[in-house]
């Protein structure tokens, strides 16, 4: 009989952020029993200690050893390229070695997934400045994962979705300065976002996902009075999507559409997804509802990837007070997406 393989890979994120301690907390709570951590053993042991846990951490030389890990031990596989001494770095400080470690974990995890040694990826937070200090010139997980999943030099079209039980928001542009994000908007990109969102809805088990498209300008442009992007770019993309059988509508005023889409007790949402044009336009409403349950999902990759919707929280790293709730929600979301597949 073949040995069982881990269902989830969990990357440790920045080793001087809260990633190691929230991973330890989630594992101790029984939420990562089907997971293998890709990270540094020393950093994970320090994270468990910071969380106040007497948690043994097992160093696996090979991923195939996961099934033989003693019960109650946090299984960790160290990928190639990890700098030495990560468990001794100061908590909560930008460090190139920490950035290099976070990137090595992501690269190693994607390699395992591509080799069929696990089924989905859950990523603990990394620090973008540390990543840059390490010479890894990607603004975040999304773009790095996109590069690692390229085929014959062709990058898969990806989009960021932030979701909780009340709201799902997909972004057309991600990590760009606001001026550049507006300049980057075009009709094909918006249409591609609608296609990716529709496909994601089908993976969530929705036969005809309802997609609301938020405008860019106040009052969705007010017929061109406050800007013409809605007329030139957004409305034509919606019309083209509808011609393909996608249930997209809008553009709606961005200051009210999220309230209309929100699913809450006694208030069934009018839409299943909202597509927003820029990063903060879309993510502020989701995060306002509570980062504890928010999950970041990368749509368009040839693999399932989720993450917490918060950052490295350098201000509280190592103090044991960070909540693992969003990481737990990310693991549950990954399993849900695997089940839908």
Name its key features.
341 residues; alpha/beta; 12 strands; 36% helix
Architecture overview:
This protein is of the alpha/beta class and 341 residues long. The chain is built from 11 helices and 12 strands. The protein has helices spanning 19-28, 41-50, 96-114, 128-133, 141-148, 178-184, 187-203, 229-243, 257-261, 279-288, 325-340, and strands at 8-11, 35-38, 57-60, 74-77, 120-123, 159-163, 168-171, 211-214, 248-252, 273-276, 295-299, 304-308. The chain has a 12-stranded mixed β-sheet with strand order 3-4-2-1-5-12-11-6-7-10-8-9, sandwiched between helices. Helix 1 (19-28) crosses helix 2, helix 3 (96-114) packs across helix 5 (141-148) and helix 7 (187-203) packs across helix 8 (229-243). The two termini are 25 Å apart.
